[in-house]
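Q: Given only this backbone (518 positions), what sequence would you predict?
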C-alpha cells in the first residue's frame, strides 16, 4: 500500500532549507526557492477568488515558463486538478476537449508560433454554453470571460498567509493529455500517490541532490519533461527549462550554469553534437545524459559515455506508467543500448497475442507494473478495460510496445505496434530505420512514416532534416542504406525538409505533412 505524501509539501520542505537557492530557470526568468513559495501563495489566493474548488479542472495551455510551473503547483495546492495541454493544440482539438472536460479556468498564451489560441477559444465559447474563466498571457485587451494575466496576477494585492494545501477529493494529481503519433487524444488520470512514489524512486536511483543542476530538453506539458523535473525538485536540484530548444543556448546554459544532468531525445542530442565548434564550450560539469522519447542508437550513446565520459541513462516510459525499464552505461555497457532491464521498483512481462509469457528469443507485447499506472483513461472505459489489466492481484498496463525477451530477463525494444508498416509480406518497425538513419553524420533528425499503397499495402516514407551546413541528395541516402539494412526496409521515398516538427521533445508526427517540401 502506497502511503500518500503530497509532492508539493515535499518540494516546499526542500525549498525552505535554502531560500536563496535558484529553484527554476527558464530563459532569463530566475525563480529562487523563496520566490516559488511566495508565488504559490499569491496564485492560490487568485484561484480562490475565481471560486476554484477542490476537484475543479484547470487547463494550462502555455509554453515552458516559470509561471507554468508556479501555476501547476498553485492549482494542486487548492485541491484542483491541472490539465496541461500542448500550446500547439488546434481549434478542432480544443473543441473536442471542451466537450469532454468541464474546465473552470483556462490559462492560455494568446499566440504560440502560428497558433492563435485566443481567437480559437473565442470561436468555441461563442458557440457553446461554456463559461470558464480564460486568463490570457501576452494578449490584447480582454473582455469577460477573458482576463489578462496582469489583472489576474500583478494587480492583486500580495498575501502573506501560510500555504494551506488541500488534497483533491479523489487523490488525483492531474489529467495528462496525450495524442501519441496518431493525433487521437487520450486523457490520462494520474494518481498523486503513485506518481509521487515513482518519481521519488527514480530520483534516488539517479542520486540527485541539492548540489546538482538539471537542464531538461522537453516541454512541461509532456509527462517526460514534467516528470523528470519533479524528480529534480524533490531532491532540491535546480531546474532549467528552455521555452524552445536552441542548441547554441543549450550549450551555453550547460557552461554558464555548470549543469550536471541533461535530459534529451536522441534527435536533440544529434543536433547538439553537430553544432560547429562544440569543443569550445566547457561541458566538464556534465555527469549524466538522460534519454527518453525515441529509440537511442548505440553509436550516439557511445559518443556520450566513451568520448565525453558522461553517464548515459536510456529509458522507456510512458505517460500511463512513468518509468518502465532502463539501460545505464554505468552498469549495462556489455549489452546493446536498447536491451533494457527492470528497476527495483518496476516489473515487466512480455506476452504473446494469446496472453501467455513468451520464451527467450520470442517477441510479444510489453506489459508493465509500476506504482504510477494511470487510474483510467478519462471518459473512455473501453480503452481503460483494454489497456489496464489485473494480473495476480496487481494492476498492469499493456503498453502496445513490442519487445523480444533476451537472456537474463532483459527485453530488446522493437517498436510501437501502432507504427508498424506492412509493406507487402514484411512487417517493418520505423523506429529501427530511424535509429539507423540517425547514424548518418549529415543527418540531424529523421521521422519515418507509412503511406497507403494500392498494391503492396503500405510504403515507407522517411522525412530527413540535414545537419546545419550540410546538403543531402536522395541518391546519397539510398546509397547509404544499400547493403547496411535489408532491402525491404530501405525507404521508398526520402523527403528532404528544412525542419522536422518537434516541440522541444518528441517529434510531432501529426504535423509532418505540413513540412513537406518539393
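A: Predicted residues:
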Amino acid at each position: 500500500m502506497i502511503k500518500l505524501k503530497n509532492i508539493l509539501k515535499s518540494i516546499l520542505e526542500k525549498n525552505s532549507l535554502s531560500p536563496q537557492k535558484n529553484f527554476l530557470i527558464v530563459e532569463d526568468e530566475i525563480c529562487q526557492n523563496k520566490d516559488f513559495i511566495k508565488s504559490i501563495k499569491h496564485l492560490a489566493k487568485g484561484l480562490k477568488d475565481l471560486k476554484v474548488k477542490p476537484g475543479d479542472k484547470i487547463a494550462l495551455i502555455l509554453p515552458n515558463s516559470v509561471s507554468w510551473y508556479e501555476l501547476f503547483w498553485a492549482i494542486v495546492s487548492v485541491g484542483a486538478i491541472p490539465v496541461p495541454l500542448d500550446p500547439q493544440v488546434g481549434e478542432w482539438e480544443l473543441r473536442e476537449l471542451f466537450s469532454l472536460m468541464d474546465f473552470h479556468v483556462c490559462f492560455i498564451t494568446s499566440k504560440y508560433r502560428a497558433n492563435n489560441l485566443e481567437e480559437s477559444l473565442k470561436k468555441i465559447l461563442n458557440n457553446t454554453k461554456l463559461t470558464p474563466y480564460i486568463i490570457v498571457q501576452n494578449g490584447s485587451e480582454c473582455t469577460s470571460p477573458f482576463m489578462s494575466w496582469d489583472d489576474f496576477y500583478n494587480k492583486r494585492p500580495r498575501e502573506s498567509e501560510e500555504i494551506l494545501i488541500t488534497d483533491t477529493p479523489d487523490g488525483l494529481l492531474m489529467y495528462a493529455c496525450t495524442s501519441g503519433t496518431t493525433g487521437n487524444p487520450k486523457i490520462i488520470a494520474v494518481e498523486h500517490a503513485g506518481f509521487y512514489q515513482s518519481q521519488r524512486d527514480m530520483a534516488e536511483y539517479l542520486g540527485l541532490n541539492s548540489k546538482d543542476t538539471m537542464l531538461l530538453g522537453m516541454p512541461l506539458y509532456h509527462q517526460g519533461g514534467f516528470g523528470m523535473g519533479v524528480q529534480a525538485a524533490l531532491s532540491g536540484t535546480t531546474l532549467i527549462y528552455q521555452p524552445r530548444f536552441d542548441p547554441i543556448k543549450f550549450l551555453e546554459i550547460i557552461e554558464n550554469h555548470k549543469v550536471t544532468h541533461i535530459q534529451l531525445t536522441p534527435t536533440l542530442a544529434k543536433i547538439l553534437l553537430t553544432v560547429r565548434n562544440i569543443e569550445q564550450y566547457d561541458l566538464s560539469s556534465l555527469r549524466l545524459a538522460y534519454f527518453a522519447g525515441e529509440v537511442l542508437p548505440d553509436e550516439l550513446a557511445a559518443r556520450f559515455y566513451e568520448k565525453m565520459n558522461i553517464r548515459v541513462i536510456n529509458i522507456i516510459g510512458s505517460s500511463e506508467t512513468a518509468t518502465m525499464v532502463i539501460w545505464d552505461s554505468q552498469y549495462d555497457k556489455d549489452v546493446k543500448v536498447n536491451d533494457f532491464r527492470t528497476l527495483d521498483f518496476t516489473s515487466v512481462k512480455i506476452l504473446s497475442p494469446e496472453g501467455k509469457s513468451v520464451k527467450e528469443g520470442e517477441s510479444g507485447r510489453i506489459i508493465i507494473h509500476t506504482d504510477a499506472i494511470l487510474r483510467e483513461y478519462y471518459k473512455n472505459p473501453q480503452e481503460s478495460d483494454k489497456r489496464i489489466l489485473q494480473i495476480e492481484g496487481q494492476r498492469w498496463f499493456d503498453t502496445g510496445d513490442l519487445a523480444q525477451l533476451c537472456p537474463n530477463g532483459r527485453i530488446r525494444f522493437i517498436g510501437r505496434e501502432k507504427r508498424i508498416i506492412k509493406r507487402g509480406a514484411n512487417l517493418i518497425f520505423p523506429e529501427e530505420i530511424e535509429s539507423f538513419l540517425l547514424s548518418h553524420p549529415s543527418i540531424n533528425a529523421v521521422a519515418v512514416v507509412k503511406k497507403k499503397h494500392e498494391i503492396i499495402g503500405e510504403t515507407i516514407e522517411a522525412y530527413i532534416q540535414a545537419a546545419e551546413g550540410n546538403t543531402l541528395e536522395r541518391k546519397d541516402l539510398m546509397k547509404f542504406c544499400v547493403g547496411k539494412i535489408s532491402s525491404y526496409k530501405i525507404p521508398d521515398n526520402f523527403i528532404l525538409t528544412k525542419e522536422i516538427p518537434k516541440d522541444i521533445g518528441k517529434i510531432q508526427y501529426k504535423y509532418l505533412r505540413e513540412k513537406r517540401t518539393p
